[in-house]
Fold this sequence. Notes:
The complex is a heterodimer of chains A (443) and B (519).
Chain A: E1 3-10, H1 14-25, E2 30-34, E3 46-47, H2 52-58, E4 67-69, E5 73-78, E6 81-85, H3 89-98, H4 107-116, H5 133-139, H6 144-153, H7 157-162, H8 168-179, H9 194-199, E7 206-208, H10 215-225, E8 229-232, E9 235-240, E10 246-250, E11 254-263, H11 266-271, E12 287-295, E13 309-312, H12 316-327, E14 337-341, E15 347-354, E16 358-360, E17 363-365, H13 369-386, H14 390-393, E18 394-402, E19 419-421, H15 428-442
Parallel strand pairs in A: 1-2, 1-11, 2-8, 5-13, 11-19
Antiparallel strand pairs in A: 3-7, 4-7, 5-6, 9-10, 10-11, 12-15, 12-18, 13-14, 14-15, 16-17
Helix pairs in contact in A: 1-10, 1-15
Chain B: H1 2-10, E1 14-15, E2 20-23, H2 27-38, E3 43-46, E4 58-62, E5 65-68, H3 79-84, E6 94-96, E7 101-104, E8 110-113, H4 117-120, H5 127-152, H6 156-164, H7 168-179, H8 182-189, H9 194-204, H10 218-225, E9 227-228, E10 231-232, E11 237-238, H11 242-255, E12 259-261, E13 266-272, E14 275-281, E15 286-288, E16 291-294, H12 298-306, H13 313-320, E17 326-336, H14 342-348, E18 351-354, H15 358-369, E19 378-382, H16 384-387, E20 395-406, H17 413-428, E21 438-444, H18 452-458, H19 464-476, E22 483-485, H20 499-514
Parallel strand pairs in B: 1-15, 2-3, 2-16, 3-12, 7-18, 16-22
Antiparallel strand pairs in B: 4-5, 6-11, 7-8, 9-10, 13-14, 14-15, 17-20, 17-21, 18-19, 19-20
Helix pairs in contact in B: 2-11, 2-20, 5-6, 5-10, 8-9, 9-10
Amino acid sequence: MTATVDFLMAGDDEACLAAAAAAAKSGARTALLRPPKRGPRIASTTHCAVPNFVWRRFDLHEYGLSLEPASARVTLTASDEAVSTFARPRETEETLAEAGVADHLLWTAFSDDMAGFSACPVLNGGLAGARSGGAALAALFRDARTRSAFGQLAGSCGVLLDDYFSDAKLKTHVAAHALSRAGLGGGEDGSAMALPELFAEDAWPVRIADGGPPLYETLERVCRNFGVTMREGRVLEVAAEDAKHRLVSISGDEKIKTRYLFFATPEAAAAAGARCNHSPLGVGGAATAVMRLTLKDRAVPAAGDEKAVFQIADDIAELQTARDEAADGRLPEQPPVEFEFTEKGDIIARTAYCPAVFREENGLRGWTGQDRQAIAARMKERLASRLEGLSQKVVKTEVAILGAGDPERKTRLAEDENIIVQPNRAGAIGAAVKLVDKVVRNG
Amino acid sequence: MAEAALQTQFAGRIEGGIDAIVLGAGADGLAAAAYLGKAGFTTVLLETGAEIGGVIQSREFAPGQLCTDGEHLIFALDPIAIEDLDLYRFGVSYASRRLETAYFFDDGRMFPLGGDLQGAANILPDEDLVARLSAFVRDVFELAVYLRPAFANPAAEVLEKVFAAAPSALARRLLRYGFAPATDVLDTMLPDGPVKTAMMSEACFRSAAPPDEAFSFMNLVRRWAGEASGLQGANAYPEGGAAGVINALRRSAQAAGVDIRAATPIKSILIEWDRAAGVELEGGGQIRAPIIVAAQNARRVFMDLIGPTGIGIDFQRAIAAAPPKIATGRLHLALKGVARDEKTKANMRRRLMYAPRTDALRLAFADARAGNIPEAMTIEAVFPSAFDAGAAEKMHVFSIMAHPLPADETVDDARREEITKAILRNLEKFAPSIEQRIAAVDLRLPSDFADAADSKTMAAKPGVLRQWTLAGAATTAANISGLYFCGPEAQIGAGLSCAAGRVAAKAAIRSAKRGVIAL
């Protein structure tokens, strides 16, 4: 029998769960399709971010969930050099001034300007879910202000940062935090779109407070409570059933008839052979390596505390080099690494600068155990370059690859407005919920 | 002595009785002036340099060997301007139209694609490939034709109208092609192999957007929206090279009574009460006119000639934005020996394109952007001397465009040598032992042009969506009545077009007729 739903959410991340819960709460028939489990999840402890409106809508406090803002965004640009920014612009300004960064006075203006961009329709889920693509694009050119904003956002992150700052370390810091989720380079057109997301309202990352239940499990419970049907499987094919519905074939020879097929992250879409087509933040097409290092002793970074979100990047050019290497189907020699500490002092590190498939002389190939080991080794090397004595402290290493591609599978066109792929990564949870709201409102 | 006396004599002069002043005698300036003259306006065309034609200049690069800077093929010449300005009557002629392109690859293979792209796929050996290439060309052509008004005129109201009115299938394609990387679209639509490699090079040619990055596919849509000799997506070689088209534009302008004054640098554009009022000349003196059409680069027009005080900060930011760090190089070679047999001659009357492997192209963009000279690059080459009757007596001229190269601000001799060598290495891939036949070499890079307008013309273009925002701002945002802009920033995509000149002149004519500008 073919089940019929309004939303089929495919994916296995917090944003996807939040989207499913939001759809179900609005009264839509919603199914959540999660890939069959292969080993344990490496759950991140920080999330950019859980906005207040999401919190209120799902009454998350009733689930015992307790979140706290991350203490700082820190970039370790060299073994003993770091740049830190904070949720409050004033605090950031003061810290930058103390560190002798000449640009400190521009910080507030910069963060205000970036937040001001969020009105541009190309952001906030981009043009995903737009009922008429033409009208959505037309809206970007409607008035001089929007057009000018779009013009700047369609440029590179590096150029936009140059407009404000001269301090290379500060620019590296902002670019690394903005681009690390999407795996983009600082020199490529459209990478500027990642900057406003970093400063959007509610975009400050939050952590699971010590002792609370993980966000993933909490959202799973929320989904159940709102009546989301949960099942395991992979999207194999999508066919047009009628003008409004799509017939989605899933593994296990089943079919689900749905109004919308929704992916909350480009990785989830990539796993199903769909691509994000309307935002530069979705074009990375790259995979993300997530690594958990269990440590016997706590590692101490040169700056920031255990509740901060860290990036490791030498300079802004390094992001572009890594992006070019990943696009070329290779592992980056020197991957930019994002990391955080768990409550127990373990490290969860990730890099989105990984190829979805590998390109070799005689064609494409998928990920192998060796590749996983290689990227883990390079990530560990980078962590060790910033955290003294780390190598001796590691007792266990786990690695998972998100968004790994299947070289046999040709990417399918997602020219279908009923297949929605959310591009942005920094505020994926809030953006996914807003996107669902938009689709529900439109349709 | 006489010159100084003249300057003093004219320093305080105010010249009146003029309806319109056009600044810059490149293709767009000439076209705009011709339109204004034809509409009955007393028009003066002022050019800073000694010659007209902007970047398109013929010169002798070796004894007896002529080359033309700038464009070497016509693929985007505005058909409306051709008709309105009677360009065929004034001398535009094609020595060869609907050029076949011979694509060469690094493994030594070659395949030719006819000038008529819609039918060209049929000669391919593989049925599946024929079907997929045909479908690909059809899809791109359909959107390209639909977008022509938006490519010709980037004004906000035109873009909005064109985008919003797109039928849903085209609107979906517009979104996808507008944002997608070239690799993404081509990987989905074409099988791996030489055809895909060739299309990848076409999509990224003269563009600043690398194959894997957002916005890069749209460059191909723009390119194929153009036409040559009435055929969409085709290339043609104009008689006398691109300079032949410039000559026709000049004749058309002169026939329309335009007063063309070369070597007349101007100091500023006069703005009075938010209206254009004329120009002040470098040597003193003014020319007063209620219409100014500026066909120079935006930074020169708005920042130098008008001054930043009269311009909004967003607009200033848009025109002062750092240009892409990618450039296209022009190389001319004089080759010893002349082809005698008909077959060789026929083979030379083609567009030759070397398409590197996609991974090499990807690396080339990364290298160029980092300021290094790429190992591999896309080469587009033609033999002007094979087309122009009587041109090749002892030698052939080989005209080459190489892309991508780093956009150096200055280039010393050693760097120049290195770039030349890199281009020649790629040329060797399909023209082995060419080096032994070289009698003279001439490399032109954007930095060689003293006039920034000319260097911009040869700089790579950013993604089309971005160009739309910049061009839209440049053509409308200054908000000065009587001032119309058709500099390089107003043109979407590369190539000799004249569409921007046409749009600017027609807007001026419309305003004058409606009485917005008092003549």
